[in-house]
Write a structure and sequence with these properties.
By secondary structure, the protein is of the alpha/beta class. 36% of the residues lie in helices and 24% in strands. The termini are far apart. The structure holds cytidine-5'-triphosphate. The site of cytidine-5'-triphosphate has 16 residues, from helix 1, strand 4 and helix 5.
């Protein structure tokens, strides 16, 4: 019996997939089809797969060509499968020519001609109009945004707004956008959604204007500086059927998401303490360290540590207090926020003028999880126990600057393909604004 194996995502099952499977089956007597998991696709940098794994498997099954279906969930699995199932022929479409020649040591490798003019990517684009996105603000983070958005299908960054026209034009030219403007109405009229990366204190009014014009919003952290404003904005978005997402990239990245599952699984027992730090030295004359009202370590940097605390322990803390080291002008160079929950404690550290280890430690009754710096780009975690022989490390992909994950989830949410809304819920975003507000009240 001649066994053939092939692999794919088979998203939005189409004629190209059908023809590929048909011809693959004809190469032998028995066809095994490997279908990728969502996590593996994410790992491969293939974001925005729309159909669930079960739907994709069902579609492959319905062709009647597959004698057996396996799930592909890790790199290196192809070779394992070829040996395990004693495969004679490995085949994929001609878009992969050359990529699998190394398997020729183990079996025959056949590249089948790809069916013309159809692909999942094309169908995804056709199913939903390409989202026209506009960027508000042109600073450091906005500069990182454009290249990251390129990795996400279904979205095109069309234009940019900045109250200083020169900056808008510079950004437009740098990234080859369609337009750059200092007029908000003109800007909002040409986009379906906005990404806000302007100074913190301007977020709320931009969000309000965008929502009023029926635009979806992805807004940099901290989205709002008072609980009431955050609440109002989320309520307004929900009432208008628009997506409003706070852009804390860590919340959407695969490693952090997996970490939450592990921490909550009981493997370290009940969570009793969360300690999270984020420090980034800035020069004393930077905006961050001179803007007495909207700068300072906590407002600038605490969103990441607070995200970890709120995701792991929830929003019902019973006590919150702050300790800071300040410069002569009163701006906080370093702030620690201490939380008490019913049965646990948490600390968030943020520093623009004090450098510390950027680690996350989640302590439980049976063990703890250590996430080394930079924990907010979660690539590696270690579950540790009293007996170090039981320690276990896990590794994850965090591609590029990591903004692609939040952009991908934002687009998915707008397209109604939102299985990930829980990654940073509205009530959590409101709680984060409440903590920022508590800090401003406490610092005076
Ligand atoms: N395939 C094909 N002809 C097409 C599209 C895909 O023969 N028009 C083949 C691929 O070469 C691969 C298999 O079908 O062997 C599964 O491909 P997959 O990546 O799931 O499909 P694509 O449509 O290429 O997906 P995407 O656009 O997301 O890359």
């Amino acid at each position: 019996m001649r066994k053939v194996i092939t692999y794919g995502s088979f998203d939005l099952f189409h004629e190209g997939h059908y023809q590929l499977l048909k011809r693959a089956r004809e190469l032998g007597d028995y066809l095994i089809v490997g279908v990728t998991t969502e996590q593996y696709d994410e790992y491969r940098g293939k974001l925005n797969v729309m159909d669930s794994l079960m739907e994709r498997i069902r579609n492959v099954k319905e062709t009647g060509f597959a004698d057996e279906i396996v799930i592909e969930d890790h790199i290196g699995q192809k070779l394992e499968d070829i040996q395990k199932y004693q495969v004679d022929v490995f085949t994929v479409g001609s878009d992969w020519v050359g990529s699998f020649d190394w398997l020729k040591d183990y079996c025959e490798v056949v590249y089948l001609e790809r069916t013309k003019n159809v692909s999942s990517t094309m169908l995804r684009a056709r199913k939903f109009n390409i989202l026209r996105l506009g960027v508000i603000g042109t600073g450091r983070i906005a500069q990182r945004f454009y290249p990251e958005a390129k990795y996400v299908s279904g979205v095109n960054v069309e234009g940019v707004y900045n109250p200083h026209l020169d900056s808008a034009i510079n950004y437009k030219e740098r990234f080859g956008l369609k337009f750059g403007t200092d007029q908000t109405e003109e800007f909002l009229g040409q986009v379906d959604a906005v990404y806000i990366a302007s100074p913190h204190e301007t977020h709320v009014s931009y969000i309000r204007q965008a929502l009023e014009c029926g635009k979806h919003v992805l807004c940099e952290k901290p989205m709002a500086l008072t609980e009431q404003e955050a609440e109002e904005l989320h309520t307004m978005a929900a009432a208008k059927g628009l997506v409003l997402m706070e852009a804390i990239k860590t919340a959407y990245c695969p490693g952090f998401y997996q970490l939450l599952g592990i921490a909550r699984s009981g493997v370290i027992g009940a969570i009793r303490d969360v300690e999270a730090a984020f420090t980034k030295l800035e020069s004393p004359d930077s905006r961050e360290l001179t803007d007495r009202e909207f700068g300072g370590s906590f407002l600038e940097l605490a969103s990441y540590p607070l995200l970890a605390i709120v995701k792991l322990l929830g929003t019902d803390y019973t006590d919150l207090r702050f300790e800071s080291i300040r410069d002569e002008s009163g701006i906080d160079l370093y702030t620690k926020a201490y939380f008490r929950y019913k049965n646990s404690l948490a600390t968030a550290k943020a520093g623009l003028g004090v450098k510390s280890e950027g680690e996350l430690i989640i302590s439980g009754t049976k063990g703890y999880i250590f996430v080394p710096a930079p924990w907010w780009k979660t690539r590696e975690i270690e579950v540790r126990f009293e007996n170090p022989e039981q320690n276990e490390k896990f590794f994850y992909k965090f591609l590029g600057d990591g903004l692609r994950y939040e952009i991908s989830d934002f687009v998915a949410a707008i397209n109604g393909n939102d299985k990930k809304e829980h990654k940073l819920r509205a009530d959590e975003s409101v709680a984060l604004a409440g903590i920022m507000e508590a800090w401003q009240n406490a610092r005076g």
